[in-house]
Amino acid sequence: MHIVVAPDKFKGSLTALEVADRVAAGIAAVHPEVEVVRVPVADGGDGTVDAAIAAGYERIPLRATGPTGDPVDTAYAMRDGVAVVEMADVSGLRLLPPDRLAPLTATSYGTGEVVRAALDHGCSGIVLGIGGSASTDGGAGMLEALGVRLLDAAGNPLPRGGGALADLDRVDLSGLHPAVATARIVVACDVDNPLLGPHGAAAVYGPQKGATPDDVVTLDAVLAHWADVVDAATGRPDVRNRAGAGAAGGVGYAAMAVLGAELEPGIGLVLELVRFADHLPGASLVITGEGSLDEQTLHGKAPAGVAAAAAKAGIPVVTVSGRLALDGAQLQTAGISAAYALTDIEPDVRRCLADAGPLLERLATTLARERIGGTTP
Where are the transmembrane segments (predicted)? Predict the structure, then answer.
C-alpha cells in the first residue's frame, strides 16, 4: 500500500513539486514506513511543463520572445516524440509587472517560437497549455512565428499585438511550418468562450490583461476582422463560435482554425501526461490540493480532476490548500473526504503565504495522524 500526493501549485508561494515534497515530509515524520508517491500536476497553466518534467520528461531550454518583445528564458518538456509547451512561461501575464500590462500590444509570438522549436526537433505531438496568457491577439503572433505572414494593404508585415490587427489586409499561409500538417496538436483548455461578443476573449479576459472598456471594444472589433480574414484564407468560418475559441486571447481560435488543433480539458491532459492512473493501483489514499480551494476548483481545476480520477478507482481523496472556501457538501460532491487548510493553523494569510512550506509540512503531520494508518514508531 502507498499514498499518492498529486497537488497543483500554491500560487505565489510553492510550486506543485514543493507542495508534494512538504506533504511527503510531514507524512514521513509521523509514518516513516509509509511509501509516498509524488505526482505534481497542473491544469494547463503555470506549472504544466514542470509537472511533465517531474514525471520524467526531458527539459529542453530555449530563449524566445516574451509578451512585450523582450527575450525570456523558457523551456518545453519532451518524451517519446511529444512536446509539452506552456504559454504562461513564455507569453504569460505573470511575466509583466502589474503596472506594465500591454492589452493592445502583447503578443503570443513566443508561444509560436516554442512550438516551432519542438517541431524542428522532430516532435510529432504537441500538447499546448494556454492558461495565463498576457495577450489578446487572436493567436496572430503564434501563427506568425510558425511561418504565417500577416500583411497590410501595402504588403508590409504588421506590428505585433492585437491592436495592429485593425490594419490586416490578408494572411499568407504558404509559409506555415510543414510539420503542422502531420503533427497532432492538442490544446489544454478549460474555458468554453467563443472568440467574439460579450462572452468572448476581449470582453471576458481583456480586463484581466489591462484592457480598459474602450480597449475591450477595440479588441473585439479587431478580432472580428482577424477572424474574417483568416476564415477567408482557411474556408472555415465556423471556428470563431466554437467553445474555447476565445481562450488565451484567441489562441484557441488560431490553433483550431489554422493548426487543426483539438481542444481538451487541461487537467485530463496533464493526468495522461504524468501517467497518474499508473500510480493508483494499491494506493490507500490520494492527497491533492492547490493554493485556494474554492468554487473555481470545482470547474476543471486540478484538484477536482485528481479527485474524479481517484474516485473512479475507489480511492479516498483528501486535500491540502492555503485557504478553504468550500463547504462539506461541496467537498463531498467533488469526491473529497476531508480538507486541510493552512488557515486552520495560521489565521494570518500573509504568514500563510510567507511561511507556506513549514506550515504545510506541519499541516501534513496532522493529516497523517488523522487519515493515514500505519505503525508509528
Answer: none
